[in-house]
Amino acid sequence: MAKSGLGSSLAYVLSRAEREVTRGLAATLAGEDVTVEQWRILRALADGRGHSMGELAEAVLMPHPTLTKAVDRLIDRALVHRGASAGDRRRVAVFLADRGRDLLARVDGAVAEHHRAVAAAFGQERTERLMRELEDLAAALDRASAEAVAPASPASTCRGG
Fold first, then answer.
1. pLDDT of 83-128, one tens digit each?
2. In the chain, % of residues over pLDDT 90
3. pTM of the prediction?
4. Inter-axis angle of helices 36-45 and 98-122, to 10 degrees?
5. Which CA distances in Å does 157 have to 93, 144, 145, 147, 152?
6. Cα–Cα distance between 108 and 32 in angstroms, integer?
7. Would strands 92-96 and 80-84 be described as parallel, antiparallel, or unpaired?
8. Phi, psi at 138, each rounded to 5°
9. Do 81 and 97 meet the contact criterion of CB atoms below 8 Å apart?
């Protein structure tokens, strides 16, 4: 049966599902006084490489002004710090501090348990398939967006005659 109204909108259905998943994750993280956005920042920095604000904004899906405020709060709590980028000492990067690594170690189990609860509610196989499909959707939309803004090559605009 075809849905009508908001239920027929992919954007709405995705937002509704994201809201439910995020609500549970936020409750999981609340005990450590960490928001979902802050957890994403800490998780992205856990690779130890240090990231520019631009790289971090893209990785954690946050606009720069919002990211800057969130990073500043994490710095105030000594969970992350700014320092010189390893690749270019003139550039500033954000790094996970020891306290941030300790906090991640404490919440990782709870985050994994939240993921297991989602999988139990929806089904493990369906959850894994959904994650793959959503990754594929994001990649396809990213490619389509890149193709839409890419200038046409001279060979494709020339007509033989």
1. 987 777 778 899 999 999 999 999 999 999 999 999 999 999 999 9
2. 78
3. 0.82
4. 120
5. 42, 19, 20, 15, 7
6. 11
7. antiparallel
8. -60, -45
9. yes
Q: Which residues contact 15 (CB under 8 A, 6 or more apart)?
A: none
Q: Looking at residue 150, what DSSP letter applies?
A: S
- Cα torsion through 34, 37, 43, 47, rounded to 10: -130
Angle, CA of 110, 115 and 25, to the nearest 5°: 60
DSSP 5: G
* Class of residue 112 by CB neighbours under 10 A (exposed 0-12, middle 13-18, buried 19+): exposed
Q: How far is CA 13 from the centre of its chain?
A: 19
- Calpha distance 93→75 (Å, rounded): 13
User: What is the C-alpha separation between 73 and 67, in angstroms, rounded?
Assistant: 10
Residue owning tokens 């196989």:
125
> What are residue 99's DSSP bridge partners?
none
Q: Which residues make Cβ contacts (< 8 Å) with residue 111, sequence separation at least 6?
A: 25, 28, 29, 39
Helical segments of the chain, H only: 10-30, 36-45, 53-60, 64-76, 98-122, 124-149, 154-157
Angle CA 97–103–109, to nearest 5: 140
